[in-house]
């Protein structure tokens, strides 16, 4: 485990701590001809060797250097094909981490992967997935008739309410699992403070009631899910 942790730390240093935005822009513009692309992969190689501090791992460092170069190079050329630039970014990061995982456990990769999946808390994963998008869809169906009676606020970000609800339910689920029920009250208070000005300016009783009902349903779903998980 410590080997993977060191490799991951070297990746974080190389990709985020010592890569200026100037390098990123230069790579996007010049692609394979960018000198910063080669500086970048050499920094990864150096960070890996420094953190491992063992010359016997030089083969792992070389694999990481070559794979990082190829993955970054491919990303530079496919990046313009995506309207949402976060998609190639996350794909790039997942591929890098998979390479690190394979390097860390190359001598027993298959068995370690099986053990990893066997140790996963599938009840927790199911609970977390449920309070995210499935719960958001359930809420939208429950509140569908009410939402039709409200004037849409075009100034708000698209789907902002949905993502706020998902994040708050994940927080509530985590607080329940950690037995921190008081933190749920603080979360409700914080949300109420942020919503206060919106409700005050709109002066709409329907909107106030809609937000209150939606908040109670959202927290209720997360609380019930947390209680079910604990009892399982």
Automatic annotation (TrEMBL):
Signal peptide: none annotated. It comes from the Bacteria. It holds the Pfam family DUF3307. The keyword Membrane applies. The chain crosses the membrane at residues 36-53, 59-78, 90-110, 122-143, 170-190, 210-230. Keywords: Membrane, Transmembrane, Transmembrane helix. This is DUF3307 domain-containing protein. It comes from Maribacter algarum (ex Zhang et al. 2020).
């Amino acid at each position: 485990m410590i080997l993977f942790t060191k490799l991951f730390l070297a990746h974080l240093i190389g990709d985020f701590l010592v890569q200026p935005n100037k390098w990123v822009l230069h790579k996007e513009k010049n692609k394979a001809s960018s000198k910063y692309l080669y500086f970048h992969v050499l920094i990864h190689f150096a960070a890996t060797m420094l953190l491992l501090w063992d010359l016997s791992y030089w083969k792992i460092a070389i694999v990481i250097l070559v794979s990082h170069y190829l993955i970054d190079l491919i990303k530079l050329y496919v990046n313009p094909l995506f309207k949402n630039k976060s998609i190639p970014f996350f794909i790039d990061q997942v591929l890098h981490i998979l390479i690190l995982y394979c390097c860390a456990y190359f001598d027993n990769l298959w068995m370690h992967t099986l053990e990893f999946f066997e140790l996963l808390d599938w009840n927790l994963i199911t609970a977390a997935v449920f309070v995210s998008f499935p719960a958001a869809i359930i809420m939208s169906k429950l509140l569908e008739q009410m939402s039709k009676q409200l004037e849409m606020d075009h100034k708000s970000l698209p789907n902002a309410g949905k993502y706020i609800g998902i994040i708050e339910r994940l927080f509530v689920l985590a607080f329940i699992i950690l037995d921190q029920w008081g933190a749920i009250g603080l979360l409700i208070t914080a949300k109420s403070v942020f919503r206060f000005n919106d409700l005050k300016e709109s002066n709409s009783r329907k909107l106030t009631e809609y937000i209150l009902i939606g908040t109670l349903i959202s927290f209720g779903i997360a609380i019930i899910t947390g209680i079910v998980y604990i009892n399982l």
